[in-house]
Amino acid sequence: MKKDYSLIIEILNRNLKKYKKIVGSISYPFPIEDYAYKVFGLDIQYANFDEEFSMEGLDVKMIYGALYPDGKYFYGQEKVILINNNTNDFYIGDFQVPKEYYKPQSERQTIAHEVGHYAEFDYKKNTDLNLFNDIEYNKALDIFIDPEVFANIYARNLLMPKEEVFKLKSEIQGTIDMLNDSIYFREKFGVTQFMLEVRLTELKIQFINGYYINKVRRTKGKKYEEEDLLELIKLSKKYDMRPNYGDAAQIANIYNKHTNQDRDGASLYMTIWRINQGKYDKFYESVTESRLRALSEIANTKK
Protein backbone atom coordinates (compact mmCIF):
# COMPACT_ATOMS: atom_id res chain seq x y z
CA MET A 1 0.00 0.00 0.00
CA LYS A 2 1.33 3.42 -0.95
CA LYS A 3 2.14 5.56 2.06
CA ASP A 4 0.27 8.79 2.65
CA TYR A 5 2.70 11.66 3.10
CA SER A 6 0.07 14.40 3.00
CA LEU A 7 0.80 15.42 6.59
CA ILE A 8 4.29 16.50 5.52
CA ILE A 9 2.78 18.82 2.91
CA GLU A 10 0.29 20.15 5.47
CA ILE A 11 3.14 20.99 7.85
CA LEU A 12 5.12 22.62 5.04
CA ASN A 13 2.13 24.71 3.97
CA ARG A 14 1.66 25.99 7.52
CA ASN A 15 5.33 26.93 7.67
CA LEU A 16 5.12 28.69 4.28
CA LYS A 17 2.01 30.57 5.36
CA LYS A 18 3.94 31.92 8.34
CA TYR A 19 6.85 32.89 6.08
CA LYS A 20 4.61 34.66 3.55
CA LYS A 21 3.08 36.74 6.35
CA ILE A 22 6.58 37.94 7.18
CA VAL A 23 8.06 38.54 3.71
CA GLY A 24 5.07 38.77 1.36
CA SER A 25 5.64 37.08 -1.99
CA ILE A 26 8.20 34.32 -2.62
CA SER A 27 10.65 34.24 -5.51
CA TYR A 28 12.90 31.45 -6.76
CA PRO A 29 15.49 30.10 -6.17
CA PHE A 30 13.80 29.78 -2.80
CA PRO A 31 15.58 31.87 -0.08
CA ILE A 32 16.24 28.88 2.16
CA GLU A 33 18.54 30.56 4.70
CA ASP A 34 16.13 33.45 5.20
CA TYR A 35 13.25 30.99 5.58
CA ALA A 36 15.14 28.90 8.15
CA TYR A 37 15.82 31.96 10.29
CA LYS A 38 12.48 33.77 10.02
CA VAL A 39 10.24 30.73 10.45
CA PHE A 40 12.24 28.66 12.94
CA GLY A 41 15.00 30.95 14.25
CA LEU A 42 17.65 28.62 12.83
CA ASP A 43 21.16 29.98 12.29
CA ILE A 44 23.10 28.60 9.32
CA GLN A 45 26.81 28.13 9.97
CA TYR A 46 29.61 26.60 7.92
CA ALA A 47 32.53 24.56 9.24
CA ASN A 48 35.19 22.05 8.25
CA PHE A 49 33.86 18.85 9.81
CA ASP A 50 37.36 17.37 9.78
CA GLU A 51 38.32 20.02 12.33
CA GLU A 52 35.12 19.82 14.40
CA PHE A 53 34.38 16.09 14.64
CA SER A 54 36.20 12.82 15.01
CA MET A 55 34.18 9.68 14.22
CA GLU A 56 35.97 6.36 14.28
CA GLY A 57 35.47 4.38 11.10
CA LEU A 58 33.65 7.21 9.32
CA ASP A 59 34.99 9.72 6.83
CA VAL A 60 33.35 12.96 7.99
CA LYS A 61 33.81 14.38 4.48
CA MET A 62 30.81 12.20 3.60
CA ILE A 63 28.58 14.10 6.06
CA TYR A 64 27.01 17.17 4.48
CA GLY A 65 25.24 18.77 7.41
CA ALA A 66 24.16 18.52 11.04
CA LEU A 67 21.26 19.92 13.04
CA TYR A 68 21.44 21.27 16.60
CA PRO A 69 17.79 21.76 17.66
CA ASP A 70 16.53 23.15 20.95
CA GLY A 71 18.61 21.78 23.80
CA LYS A 72 21.53 20.65 21.60
CA TYR A 73 24.47 23.02 21.46
CA PHE A 74 27.27 23.87 19.03
CA TYR A 75 29.77 26.03 20.90
CA GLY A 76 27.06 27.10 23.32
CA GLN A 77 24.46 27.90 20.64
CA GLU A 78 21.30 25.91 19.95
CA LYS A 79 19.06 25.95 16.87
CA VAL A 80 21.99 25.73 14.46
CA ILE A 81 22.25 24.08 11.05
CA LEU A 82 25.91 23.29 10.44
CA ILE A 83 27.05 22.78 6.84
CA ASN A 84 30.25 20.90 6.04
CA ASN A 85 32.39 23.06 3.74
CA ASN A 86 34.94 20.29 3.20
CA THR A 87 33.02 17.39 1.67
CA ASN A 88 34.42 14.74 -0.66
CA ASP A 89 34.71 15.51 -4.35
CA PHE A 90 31.83 14.35 -6.54
CA TYR A 91 32.53 12.05 -9.48
CA ILE A 92 30.55 11.01 -12.53
CA GLY A 93 32.37 7.86 -13.51
CA ASP A 94 36.04 8.83 -13.64
CA PHE A 95 35.26 12.51 -14.14
CA GLN A 96 35.76 14.75 -11.12
CA VAL A 97 33.07 17.42 -11.22
CA PRO A 98 34.42 20.88 -10.29
CA LYS A 99 32.77 21.95 -7.04
CA GLU A 100 31.72 25.30 -8.45
CA TYR A 101 29.25 23.42 -10.68
CA TYR A 102 27.28 21.90 -7.81
CA LYS A 103 28.49 23.00 -4.36
CA PRO A 104 26.13 25.99 -3.85
CA GLN A 105 23.13 23.93 -4.97
CA SER A 106 24.18 20.95 -2.88
CA GLU A 107 24.53 23.14 0.21
CA ARG A 108 21.07 24.65 -0.39
CA GLN A 109 19.62 21.15 -0.52
CA THR A 110 21.43 20.16 2.67
CA ILE A 111 20.03 23.23 4.44
CA ALA A 112 16.52 22.42 3.19
CA HIS A 113 16.93 18.82 4.35
CA GLU A 114 18.02 19.88 7.84
CA VAL A 115 15.18 22.43 7.96
CA GLY A 116 12.89 19.49 7.19
CA HIS A 117 14.26 17.64 10.21
CA TYR A 118 13.65 20.69 12.37
CA ALA A 119 10.12 21.14 10.98
CA GLU A 120 9.30 17.60 12.11
CA PHE A 121 10.93 18.25 15.50
CA ASP A 122 8.99 21.50 15.88
CA TYR A 123 5.69 19.89 14.89
CA LYS A 124 6.07 16.98 17.31
CA LYS A 125 7.18 19.33 20.07
CA ASN A 126 4.13 21.56 19.67
CA THR A 127 1.55 18.85 18.96
CA ASP A 128 -0.15 16.58 21.46
CA LEU A 129 -0.55 13.35 19.49
CA ASN A 130 -3.16 12.16 21.99
CA LEU A 131 -5.56 14.79 20.62
CA PHE A 132 -5.49 13.23 17.15
CA ASN A 133 -8.27 11.03 15.93
CA ASP A 134 -7.21 7.50 15.00
CA ILE A 135 -6.64 8.24 11.30
CA GLU A 136 -4.44 11.27 11.95
CA TYR A 137 -2.59 9.45 14.71
CA ASN A 138 -1.77 6.47 12.51
CA LYS A 139 -0.79 8.76 9.63
CA ALA A 140 1.63 10.64 11.88
CA LEU A 141 3.22 7.48 13.21
CA ASP A 142 3.61 6.12 9.70
CA ILE A 143 5.53 9.23 8.65
CA PHE A 144 7.62 9.61 11.78
CA ILE A 145 9.04 6.10 11.45
CA ASP A 146 11.62 7.44 9.00
CA PRO A 147 12.82 11.02 9.64
CA GLU A 148 14.93 10.92 6.45
CA VAL A 149 11.82 10.41 4.34
CA PHE A 150 10.15 13.35 6.08
CA ALA A 151 13.18 15.63 5.55
CA ASN A 152 13.64 14.64 1.90
CA ILE A 153 9.99 15.17 0.94
CA TYR A 154 9.86 18.44 2.85
CA ALA A 155 13.03 19.71 1.12
CA ARG A 156 11.94 18.75 -2.40
CA ASN A 157 8.54 20.39 -2.02
CA LEU A 158 10.09 23.48 -0.45
CA LEU A 159 12.74 24.06 -3.12
CA MET A 160 10.70 22.79 -6.09
CA PRO A 161 6.97 23.36 -5.46
CA LYS A 162 4.69 21.42 -7.77
CA GLU A 163 2.98 24.51 -9.19
CA GLU A 164 6.28 26.26 -9.99
CA VAL A 165 7.74 23.15 -11.63
CA PHE A 166 4.72 22.72 -13.91
CA LYS A 167 4.75 26.44 -14.71
CA LEU A 168 8.33 26.21 -15.98
CA LYS A 169 7.62 22.95 -17.79
CA SER A 170 4.79 24.67 -19.72
CA GLU A 171 7.39 26.98 -21.26
CA ILE A 172 9.25 24.03 -22.81
CA GLN A 173 7.88 22.43 -25.97
CA GLY A 174 7.74 18.65 -26.01
CA THR A 175 9.47 16.24 -23.64
CA ILE A 176 12.13 17.69 -21.37
CA ASP A 177 15.60 16.83 -22.67
CA MET A 178 18.10 16.96 -19.83
CA LEU A 179 20.96 17.68 -22.22
CA ASN A 180 19.35 20.98 -23.24
CA ASP A 181 16.68 21.84 -20.68
CA SER A 182 18.05 20.90 -17.26
CA ILE A 183 19.90 24.22 -16.96
CA TYR A 184 16.59 26.14 -16.93
CA PHE A 185 15.27 24.09 -14.01
CA ARG A 186 18.53 24.06 -12.07
CA GLU A 187 18.95 27.83 -12.35
CA LYS A 188 15.29 28.52 -11.55
CA PHE A 189 15.23 26.38 -8.41
CA GLY A 190 18.90 26.33 -7.39
CA VAL A 191 19.11 22.54 -7.20
CA THR A 192 21.43 19.80 -8.41
CA GLN A 193 20.80 17.53 -11.37
CA PHE A 194 20.10 14.68 -8.95
CA MET A 195 17.31 16.49 -7.09
CA LEU A 196 15.87 17.71 -10.39
CA GLU A 197 15.55 14.18 -11.78
CA VAL A 198 14.10 12.84 -8.52
CA ARG A 199 11.52 15.64 -8.34
CA LEU A 200 10.43 15.34 -11.98
CA THR A 201 10.04 11.60 -11.51
CA GLU A 202 8.05 12.18 -8.33
CA LEU A 203 5.72 14.51 -10.24
CA LYS A 204 5.47 12.01 -13.14
CA ILE A 205 6.94 14.51 -15.59
CA GLN A 206 8.59 12.72 -18.51
CA PHE A 207 12.16 13.52 -19.50
CA ILE A 208 14.93 11.96 -21.58
CA ASN A 209 18.72 11.79 -21.31
CA GLY A 210 18.75 11.92 -17.52
CA TYR A 211 22.00 10.83 -15.92
CA TYR A 212 20.68 9.19 -12.75
CA ILE A 213 17.19 7.90 -13.43
CA ASN A 214 16.64 7.46 -17.15
CA LYS A 215 19.53 5.03 -17.50
CA VAL A 216 17.59 2.54 -15.44
CA ARG A 217 14.37 3.27 -17.36
CA ARG A 218 16.03 2.59 -20.70
CA THR A 219 17.30 -0.79 -19.53
CA LYS A 220 13.98 -1.70 -17.84
CA GLY A 221 15.55 -2.32 -14.45
CA LYS A 222 18.30 -4.68 -15.67
CA LYS A 223 21.18 -2.28 -15.41
CA TYR A 224 22.55 -4.12 -12.37
CA GLU A 225 23.46 -7.80 -12.38
CA GLU A 226 21.98 -10.11 -9.76
CA GLU A 227 25.18 -10.25 -7.72
CA ASP A 228 25.41 -6.43 -7.77
CA LEU A 229 21.98 -6.07 -6.20
CA LEU A 230 22.73 -8.71 -3.57
CA GLU A 231 25.92 -6.85 -2.68
CA LEU A 232 23.97 -3.60 -2.27
CA ILE A 233 21.47 -5.28 0.05
CA LYS A 234 24.33 -6.64 2.13
CA LEU A 235 25.99 -3.22 2.41
CA SER A 236 22.72 -1.39 3.07
CA LYS A 237 21.74 -3.53 6.07
CA LYS A 238 24.11 -1.47 8.21
CA TYR A 239 21.88 1.53 7.49
CA ASP A 240 18.57 -0.34 8.00
CA MET A 241 18.17 -0.48 4.21
CA ARG A 242 17.49 3.28 4.22
CA PRO A 243 20.83 5.05 3.75
CA ASN A 244 20.92 8.82 3.32
CA TYR A 245 23.04 10.54 0.66
CA GLY A 246 26.14 10.55 2.87
CA ASP A 247 25.70 6.86 3.69
CA ALA A 248 25.31 6.07 -0.01
CA ALA A 249 28.66 7.72 -0.75
CA GLN A 250 30.29 5.46 1.84
CA ILE A 251 28.50 2.42 0.40
CA ALA A 252 29.81 3.37 -3.06
CA ASN A 253 33.42 3.26 -1.85
CA ILE A 254 33.03 -0.29 -0.53
CA TYR A 255 30.77 -1.46 -3.36
CA ASN A 256 33.23 -0.35 -6.04
CA LYS A 257 36.09 -2.18 -4.32
CA HIS A 258 34.08 -5.39 -4.02
CA THR A 259 32.69 -5.34 -7.57
CA ASN A 260 35.53 -3.62 -9.44
CA GLN A 261 33.03 -1.03 -10.70
CA ASP A 262 32.99 2.74 -10.55
CA ARG A 263 29.57 3.96 -9.46
CA ASP A 264 28.76 7.17 -7.58
CA GLY A 265 26.81 7.38 -4.35
CA ALA A 266 23.85 9.22 -5.88
CA SER A 267 23.07 6.49 -8.42
CA LEU A 268 23.48 3.78 -5.76
CA TYR A 269 21.14 5.72 -3.48
CA MET A 270 18.42 5.52 -6.14
CA THR A 271 19.14 1.83 -6.82
CA ILE A 272 18.81 0.97 -3.11
CA TRP A 273 15.53 2.88 -3.08
CA ARG A 274 14.33 0.77 -6.03
CA ILE A 275 15.40 -2.41 -4.25
CA ASN A 276 13.32 -1.38 -1.24
CA GLN A 277 10.34 -0.73 -3.52
CA GLY A 278 10.63 -4.25 -4.96
CA LYS A 279 11.45 -2.97 -8.45
CA TYR A 280 13.90 -5.84 -9.11
CA ASP A 281 11.79 -8.64 -7.59
CA LYS A 282 10.35 -9.74 -10.95
CA PHE A 283 13.84 -10.17 -12.37
CA TYR A 284 15.65 -11.99 -9.56
CA GLU A 285 14.04 -14.28 -6.97
CA SER A 286 17.24 -14.22 -4.91
CA VAL A 287 17.02 -10.43 -4.61
CA THR A 288 13.45 -10.69 -3.33
CA GLU A 289 14.45 -13.28 -0.72
CA SER A 290 17.53 -11.32 0.36
CA ARG A 291 15.59 -8.06 0.63
CA LEU A 292 12.81 -9.57 2.73
CA ARG A 293 15.32 -11.41 4.93
CA ALA A 294 17.27 -8.20 5.55
CA LEU A 295 14.12 -6.26 6.44
CA SER A 296 13.04 -9.04 8.81
CA GLU A 297 16.43 -9.09 10.54
CA ILE A 298 16.36 -5.30 10.92
CA ALA A 299 12.87 -5.43 12.41
CA ASN A 300 13.89 -8.16 14.88
CA THR A 301 16.90 -6.21 16.14
CA LYS A 302 14.63 -3.27 16.98
CA LYS A 303 12.23 -5.31 19.12
UniProtKB/TrEMBL annotation:
Alphabetical list of InterPro entries matching this protein: IrrE_HExxH
Residue stretches making up the IrrE N-terminal-like domain: 103-201
One Pfam family recorded for the sequence: Peptidase_M78
Name of the protein in question: IrrE N-terminal-like domain-containing protein
Organism: Brachyspira murdochii (strain ATCC 51284 / DSM 12563 / 56-150)
